[in-house]
Amino acid sequence: MRSGRVPVLLSAVLALVSACSGAVDPGPAPSSALGAQAATSDEPTPEPTRVDLRTLTPAELQGRWWSWAASIESGRNPVTDPDGRFCGERQKDGIWLLAGTFGGTVARTCTLPVNAQIAFPVLNRYGPAADCLPFMNEAKGSAVLDGRNLAIEELGATPITVNTAPGNPVSDKRGYFFTYSCGLWVRLGTLTPGRHEVVFRGSSGDVSVGVDYSLVVTDRMPAPSLSQSV
After folding, report:
1. End-to-end alpha-carbon separation of the chain, Å?
2. Are the CB atoms for 110 and 197 separated by under 8 Å?
3. Do 15 and 123 form a contact (C-beta atoms < 8 A)?
4. How many C-beta atoms lie closer than 10 Å to residue 153's C-beta?
5. Cα–chain-centroid distance for residue 203?
6. Structural contact between residues 120 and 141, judged by C-beta atoms closer than 8 angstroms
7. Phi-psi region of 205 (alpha: psi -120 to 50; beta: other; left: phi over 0)
8. Taking the model in full, what pTM does it have?
9. What are the domain boundaries of the chain?
């Protein structure tokens, strides 16, 4: 789903890009005395970072999603995922992003923690700010949770910074770039334990995308995936 080299997609949706991480030298190993002190410390283990989905600005939300989508190589990318097996890749900060497609419709099953705050674009793109106006003028979309229509945010041209990894299906390169993003978005929030159906469809011009998600929400899933870095 691309216009030239500019992808259009569905955050579970159209067009993408994203991030990379670096290794840090841990320095010299601690002495045995320090190691013993750490082992007997009564200090609690720090909780993973958690961001409130409701407080994210349009730039933060869209930049986060594009960087996520562009931070994962093509073979494991949630946007090219055929069935949901890669939906947990690089989720972080307590926010669980859903991906769309580069065009066409797919069905995915995804297992996620009960405290994950879900967000996704029904339809989105990045590129020159001027391209967002015609795109949004023709944009149409719907999102349904367990048979109930969800509220959709219309986000116009918004400046974002995208962090990408090599081999990603958005830019295919590693680095940072500045661009504009726009689209139709849903901030779903958390869901109760059990199975839920999320269905969304989006289109603009000759581009159309859609995903049927079967979300399995569980309180037995370990949380580390929420704190991974993109």
Report:
1. 23
2. no
3. no
4. 14
5. 19
6. no
7. left
8. 0.76
9. 2-20+50-222
